[in-house]
Amino acid sequence: MRALRTLIIVVVVLGGLFVIADRVAVNFAENEAADRLRANEGLASTPDVSIKGFPFLTQVVGGELDDVEVGIPDYEASSGDGGDTVRITGLKADMRGVVFSGDFSSATARSATGSATIPYDELLKAAQSEPTEIAPGVTARVVGLSDGGNGKIKIELDGTVLGVDLPRPVSVLSSVAVEDGTVRLRADSLPNLGADLGEESVRSLTDFQQAIDQLPGGIQLDKVEGAADGVRITVKGSDVKLAG
What we know:
Helix content is 24%, strand content 48%. It has helices at 2-41, 56-62, 120-123, 199-206; strands at 48-51, 64-78, 85-100, 107-119, 132-135, 138-149, 152-161, 164-165, 170-179, 182-187, 208-211, 220-226, 230-243. The strands form two sheets. Strands 5, 6, 7, 8, 9, 10 and 11 form a seven-stranded antiparallel beta sheet that branches. Strands 1-2-3-4-13-12 form a six-stranded antiparallel beta sheet. A hairpin with a 3-residue loop joins β12 (220-226) and β13. This is DUF2993 domain-containing protein. InterPro entries: DUF2993 (IPR021373). Pfam families: LmeA.
């Protein structure tokens, strides 16, 4: 009986040491992966990397991690060929099947899904926020974007007709969609700006787009919708590079 108790104690102690070693190893790996991702993507701050699954060391031996979660608070994505950028907040990505090289210098996920937000004040930069003549004697501009409910975006405009300012901003609901890496807004109906205006003239103001290029690791826009704090985007990708 004493020998059995001794064996159990030894097993428990060894098991505890293995768990400690496993957690130390995974914390080291998470920090190293975060530093490499920051360097590769030129991030202003270190991202959060969380390696899921237990034990970690047996995954290392197999050369593949089951699930890695990455969080980037703020990311400056390219918005076209002119060198402009658009700020994306709260980017979270779930990487599945992360295969890494023997010296850990590179890591690639077989698939990735995630979400992020384009704040409304950031998206407003793509709109006509300066007074624009849309017809003789009629100028207007987009003054605000906000949540319109049910995935829509509310666009607010003010304007001047023959020298007279509109008494208050005019709002219109807009649908938002993604096409070829570009977020596109299109008004569901035309706003009443106090003058008889052609549809093409009005839509030159209400309908606009924002390109989103070069997301981390090569992930791509999948879906978009209006939300409380901005345009909520979902992303996906395959063969997504975490490092190397």
